[in-house]
Amino acid sequence: MARKPQEQPQLDMTPMIDVVFELIIFFVVTIKQEDLFTRLNANRPAPSTGSSSSDSDTTVTIEIGKGRDANGVLVYNKREMRRKELDQNLREVSRTSKKTPIIIRCTEDSPHKALVDVLDICYRNELFSVSIFTM
Amino acid sequence: MARKSQENPTLDMTPMIDVVFELIIFFVVTLTEAQRKDETIELEDGKHGIVLTPEELPPTHMQIDIASRDKTGKYLPRGRITMGDREISPSEIGLRVKERLRKIGEFPVLIRADFNCRHEAVARVMNACTEAGLWKISFMAVGEDKTSKPGRPGRKHLDALNRRGGR
What we know:
Strand content of chain A: 15-25%
Helix content of chain B: 25-40%
Number of helices of chain A: 3
Order of helices and strands of chain A: HEEEEHEHE
Oligomer: heterodimer
Helix content of chain A: 25-40%
Strand order of the largest sheet of chain B: 4-3-2-5-6
Structural class of chain B: alpha/beta
Order of helices and strands of chain B: HEEEEHEHEH
Number of strands of chain B: 6
Largest sheet of chain A: 5 strands, mixed
Strand content of chain B: 15-25%
Shape of chain A: elongated
Largest sheet of chain B: 5 strands, mixed
């Protein structure tokens, strides 16, 4: 190391700082655009078992059909209800037992968003054993 | 391009600029690669589901996309099912699931279906999985929406619900 530090020209830091700022801005901009996604798990009945809805009266059945608008129709306890009402009903169910099995029956022409809404309401009320039937 | 040698040699910026451009191009390309999925699919809100993170979802998972419209915007009652970037039929999904089950055992299936899909399209995919021996299905939903406008059609009802106060 026979170099003399006094004669060495000083390294200009400006471009490096420029580059770092550019990278930071780039990452901030790209990271902000990410949506946060969730997943909602459900079970399917085995293909062979046809009728399991009558095994006990503690299961809760929610039916989803096609409605007048794009949101579909939710039927619980033979009564058509809105999402808010269903949420309240399921909260009661959840208070009794969180392990209550939920059965969702969808008609083929029901919108998928109704199914996701119902699953979300079940998750909101901590009812996680959900199975989906197609009618 | 003969450079004039000066008394004080300045730092050559060219390699640094080269490297920066290369980095930018690399990130842009990987980002678009990661986001290359069917952009026509709009998910319904599901704020209370399990938050999807790369750590939470095993890399062995299988994602199946279901769009409600074709590329020209025409509504398809039976949906358009794709995996990766390729259109796929339910029977093909069944074959793939069966093969994967044999190789690695149980794995999660994630269905990313448009909120506007008919249930029939989703049921076809679910039936294919069930017949192949997989009974657990996950649906993808939006936990927190940061890119779309607030008036997104899929979220009206749950907005009203969530105004009641979250947990």
